[in-house]
Design a protein that fits this description.
- This protein is mainly α and 155 residues long.
- 61% of the residues lie in helices and 8% in strands.
């Protein structure tokens, strides 16, 4: 069922994102990963990161990161290690097993992403991306008061 926010455009964005997220999560579960754990492994593929950095990248609480790391570390996909110069910081590192699992799981997630936009040609995909980036930028700004708001139809 589609969300009902009062804006057909916002409802369509939320519904599409939900459908894509569910399909990606289903594909990743075949590898024992969730979408957030896949994002965590992808973030570590670029190099070691602190728990705080991962929390910021994933937009989740540090406690949630700890729970995720406990699970992934138990499976041998991630390792905790000491920071070279700051002993207060624990770094997270993708293990070789984690890199292999990430590569295998990413194939399914990439197929889902490609399928989600397969009905759009390259130009339409660029337009969609541009429009969604504008939506994100607008969403980051404080809402305008009712008297100042422009009509969505006028835009």
């Amino acid at each position: 069922m589609r969300p009902r926010t009062g804006s057909d455009a916002v409802d369509a964005i939320l519904f599409a994102a939900h459908r894509i997220r569910i399909a990606a999560d289903t594909a990743l579960r075949e590898h024992g990963l969730s979408l957030p754990s896949h994002k965590l492994l992808r973030a570590l593929a670029d190099g070691d990161r602190s728990m705080r950095e991962i929390s910021q990248v994933l937009h989740v609480s540090p406690r949630t990161v700890t729970d995720m790391i406990d699970t992934l570390e138990g499976r041998g996909l991630v390792a905790r290690c000491a920071h070279a110069t700051d002993r207060r910081v624990t770094l997270l590192r993708l293990t070789e097993a984690g890199a292999r699992e990430l590569a295998a799981a990413s194939t399914g997630a990439e197929r889902v992403a490609a399928s989600a936009i397969s009905g759009l040609d390259a130009g339409e995909q660029r337009t969609l991306q541009s429009l969604l980036e504008r939506v994100c930028a607008s969403a980051d700004r404080p809402p305008r008061s009712r008297g100042n708001a422009r009509s969505a139809v006028a835009d």
